[in-house]
Amino acid sequence: MTALKNRYPHLKVSLAIGGWNEGSANYSIMASNPTSRQTFINSASDFIRKYNFDGLDLDWEYPAKRGGSPADKENFVHLVRELREEFDKHGWLLTAALGVGQDTVDAAYNIPALSRYLDYMHAMCYDLHGSWDNRVGANAPLRSSQPDDKLTVEYAIKYLLKQGAPPRKLVLGLPLYGRTFLLENEENTLVMGAPTGPKGFPGPYTKEDGFMGYNEICVNISDGWKIFWDDDTMTPYAVQGDKVITYDDERSIAEKVKFAMKLDLAGTMVWSVDTDDFRGDCINNSGGGSSNYQLMRTISRTITETLKEKQEQDDQHQTERTTEQGLSAAPKFQAVLWVIVALIVVQHSAAV
Q: Among 175, 188, 296, 279, which Cα is nearest to 236's?
């Protein structure tokens, strides 16, 4: 992976550690005292140096939850601060993946403190609904028609900002997968919110109940599925008999990218590259030609088009240069970063 930097010198490759399956207990123990934290920092630093990584992404899911301790919230800050002190010696990146449920944010994260030490905070705006709810729900609803709905991308991001996350450090996580459901009654005409069993159905490759990669979804739904668009959540869903898939497609991904850009966030990230349509099977099956990584390319294209539209609007309204030119340069610089991030991701993906 790090060898890709020979081909793309501007590419940054970070080591990620943690994840849902890792749980929280071991990280809670490690972060609980200075000695074990230093052991972790030394180990991570040695690994980064040995394999020529550019930084570390912490995916502790989650401090103070899932077997953790209430003290994790502040111990996580200690860990990040001490990592920052070491990483600054080498110019390494330090990032973290954050859960976005309000109860998780409140219990796990001291956002202002973390913001001081992290380069970026990756908001995992997905898995907001699934078969565990026992009813159909969008995996990553952009918004909701219910004013008190806290499980949406919009609410999650705005809550993190309200807690003190700087927009320039906040990255919106996008899912390249969907959630599957089995309806209790397939005659139910109101699918979104309809009762389901406690388990979904698996994809042919990922083989996990309730989960299906976009590469699996787009091939499956081309075979007799009915596809709908939900205006409330700004996401699609597909139905065949008692089976339902809620997911993100090119349209919904584009809407989320525009949302992130409107809030001047640092960028977007995806989970995960390997579940995009990496072989272009979906377009081939529909007779539309050959193209791979459709969702990744949608991210890049949306960023480019949105920036172009904004620049055209700015040019139209700006009739003279003012002393505020220095201030107006800042968002333009941020916009350039958006383009670079998107293009690197697409090129990187195509090379894998």
A: 175
Which tokens is 254 given?
């584009």
Nearest Cα neighbor of 226 from 239, 209, 208 is 239
Q: Which whole-number Å values give the CA distances from 143 to 132, 146, 149, 256, in the listed order? A: 20, 9, 8, 10
Quick one: which of 252, 220, 274 has its CA closest to 125? 252
| 208 assigned to active site | no
| pLDDT per position as a tens digit, 90-143 | 999 999 999 999 999 999 999 999 999 999 999 999 999 999 999 999 999 999
Angle at 294 (CA atoms; ends 292, 295), nearest 5 degrees: 140
Which residues are CB-neighbours of 279 under 8 A, at least 6 positions away?
Answer: 215, 292
The pTM of this model reads 0.89
User: What is the set of domains in the chain, with CATH numbers?
Assistant: 4-175+251-351 (3.20.20.80)
- The catalytically annotated residue of 22, 61, 82, 216 is 61
CB neighbours of residue 257 within 10 Å: 25
- Give me the residues paired with residue 27 across strands: none
pLDDT digits (tens, 9 = 90+) for 14-63: 999 999 999 999 999 999 999 999 999 999 999 999 999 999 999 999 99
Query: CA nearest 24: which of 108, 93, 103, 83?
Result: 108
The strand pair at 243-246 and 235-240 is best described as antiparallel
Listed in sequence order, the DSSP H helices in the chain are 4-7, 25-31, 34-50, 72-87, 102-108, 111-117, 153-162, 214-220, 250-262, 281-285, 294-317, 325-351
What does the alpha-carbon distance between residue 225 and residue 221 come to, in Å, rounded to a whole number? 5
Pairwise CA distance, residues 285 & 131, whole Å? 29
- Contacts of residue 6, Cβ cutoff 8 Å, sequence gap at least 6: none
Counting Cα atoms < 13 Å in the Cβ hemisphere of 96 gives: 25
